[in-house]
Structure formats: structure tokens, C-alpha cells
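Box 3.1 A note on notation
Throughout this textbook, protein chains are presented in two layers. The first layer is the amino acid sequence; the second is a C-alpha cell string describing backbone geometry. Keep the layers aligned when reading.
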Amino acid sequence: MSKTPHEAPALTAHEDHPGWRAYLNTHMLICVFLGFTSGLPLFTLVYLVQAWLRSEGVNLKEIGLFALIQFPYTWKFLWAPLMDRYIPRLPGWRPGRRRGWMLLTQVLVAGAIAALGFVSPRNSIWTVAALTTLVAFFGASSDIVIDAYRRELLRDTEQGLGNAVHVNAYKLAALIPGSLALILSDHMPWDAVFALTGAFMLPGILMTLLVREPEVVGTPPRNLRDAIVLPFREFIQRDGWAGALLVIAFIFLFKIGDTMATTLSTSFFLDIGFTRTEIGIVAKTTALVASVAGGIIGGVWLVKIGIGRGLWIFGALQMVSTLGFAWLAQLGPGSPVLAVLYDFTISTSHAIAAGLSVFGIAVTPQFSPMTVALAIVYGVETFTTGLTMAAFVAYIASTTDPRYTATQFALFTSLASVPRTLASAASGFIVAKIGWFDYFIACTALAIPGMLLLFKIAPWNGTARNGEASRAQ
């Protein structure tokens, strides 16, 4: 197949990579701030809004249906061509195509999140639905331009690690609505909680004001028709309809099992007896450490093994980690496995406390067996998710043509979000029908089709399909 513009050597950088320390530069710092900004609105909807609705007496089925407001993340490719074609212009300041859209969408996200605190789910559920839809729309629009900016900013040799850093920061954003805000909600009114959460968009806004507009690759779309038609035509022409449909199926299916398992995780933890504070301190804080570790290890590991093999290894680990939720759903205080884990955790904690006491630091470890299980299960799940997302997003980025970055990146990430939206909407009904244990077993089984597609997308030893993916090894 002839070499097309999208076929930059991003996926083969590991062959002559000078060492990952060379990539701790300004580009990586930008990825941190913009990744955090991308993640905050989505995790506000997934974690904070879910806990808010549940605490205000909204039933589980209605909470599940609230996942439908995330559809802008699924359909964002429909208006992505507008963001490729048009340039926002502010009085006296022309920030450029990417920076202009980033600034506008980030400010709107912050305002929509803060506005949630001024309505009550009990009295104005439709107003809540409208505001959360705005958060999703502005957040999805912000994702479009941030993904395009990152793809254009990073050099080919930075794509793997740069996308891993972005994913890591994206997951890091979950700490605010999924941990800090939950803890604060036990001690302050919801309007203050949402205002504070919205204020965490400020670092991304400041970064947008400071960074430079990336160089334009090729010729920007001359009109709206070119912005809409050419990105899709280029994608189809790479390997024909068969290759395009194969990539679409893989993007759709690869993370569907993990997505379904985590979509109602906060409600699951509440239903099996954990308090919001326990969830905020134990689960989400443990998840932060595990996610950071997974993102860093995943990014560095991808340099050594390549994105293709990373998808195989990380995908298998992700599938196995889902079984931990099923174990937690069946766990009782008399479990021998839990007793062993608890004893190990206590022994390790006391050893660490003894070491710290040498330096005059007094620490008294206090754990219950169930909180230990919660920390282990959620920690392993978020660690493997960090690994997998590093490879998955790098794969998506390397599959885009730099001439049509915003539209193609939005198309691929929209496809990846379809399972989250549809499965989340149905998950409450499924859990009510079969229970938590069988639900998580089903989630594990749903990961198998995506893994099987790797035989075509990125064979362990062989030639993959569709442009960039052909060099995934």
C-alpha cells in the first residue's frame, strides 16, 4: 500500500528510542494539564453526579438512564468538522483555531458544572438533566480540540508516551469529583461542592492562554464540505470498507467489558455497605495511585514492546481485573482469602509504621477487612485500566491523518464511547435483574470479542490491518 500522510512512524519509535527521560519536556507538561482538563467534566458526570442523585433519593434505574446524557461524547464527531473548519475570534485577540476552541469550551464547562449546585434533583430533575447534558456537550467539544491539539503538538516519537501521560492525567482528574468532592459533600452543601469542582477547570484555562498554537499540517479545510467529506473519504480509502469496518469494530468492542464493570461502581460500593467517605478515601485515593502507576508503566512499556503487543498484554490484564468486582460482590467477613489479604496488609502497614517511627513520624494503621478488599479490587482495576488506555489512545492517535486530526480523532473516540453510553443506560436494569455478581461475570465475558479482533488488528507476530496499525509491532 502506498504511503499516505497519516502513516507517520509513531508506532515504531521504540526501535530507535533514545530513552524515555528525553521526553520529560514541555510537551509532556502540556499533556498533563490538558489531560486533566479533559477528564474533569466526564468524571463529574460519572462519579459526582451519580453520588449526588443517589444521595438525594433518585432510584438506581433513573441513575442508569442518566448515562444517556453522555451521548455528546458518542456523537461529537458530528460537529468536529466545524472545529476543524472555523476559528473562534475574540475582540482584540486571535488565539488560533485550536487554542480558541479550547478556551471557549473550557470556560463553558466550568460554568455548567458550577450551575448544577443551584438545582435540586428532587424538585427539578429535568433541569438537572439539561445542565448535565450541557456539561457533556461542552466537555465532549473540549475533548475534540484537545485531542487534535495533542496529536499536532507531539512529534511522532512522542506519541506513545505523550498519549500515556494524557491518559494518566485524564484518570487523575477523577480524584476531584470522585474523591475530594465526595468527602466534602459530607461536610458542606452541594452548591459549594459543584462550584469548587468547576473551579478545577482553571489550570487548563491558564495553560491554554500560555501555550502556542501548533503548526498546521497540510492545508486546512477550505470549506465546510471539505471538512466533513475528506476525513471520512481518507479513512475508507486506506484499506477499503473491510479494513475500515474492522478498525471500527475493534474500537467499539475493546473496552466494552471494563466500561460496563465500572459505570456503576460508585452505586455498587454504596449498595454493599461502604460510606461516601470510605469510597472517597479508600477506593478513589487507592485508584489514584494505581492509575498513576499504570499510566507511567504503560507509557514506558509501550516504548519497549510497541503498541500492538501492548494491546494484547494490557487487554488481557484488564479482562482478568474485572473478576475482582465479582469477588467483592460475593465477599463475606469469613472469607479465608480476605483473611490472608487482611493479615498481609496489616503486617506490611505495621512494618512501614515502624520504619517511619525511626524518623519520628507516628502512624497508626487502621483498616477493616472489607476496606482492604475494596482498595485491592479497585486498585488493580484502575491500574490495568491505566495500562490499557495508554495503548488504546496511542493506537487511536496513530490511526488519524494529521490533515484531519479533529474529525478523525473525534470519530474514533466517539466510537469508543458508544459502549459506555449504551451499556451504562442498560446497566441499572441488568443489575436489578441478575444481581451484581452475575453482572460482573457478564462484563468479563464481554471483553473476549475485542481481544479476538487483535488477531487481525495487531497480530503478535505479523502484519496488522489499516495504515498505522500495520506497524503496531
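The two ends are 17 Å apart (CA to CA). Residues 276-330 form the longest helix (55 residues).
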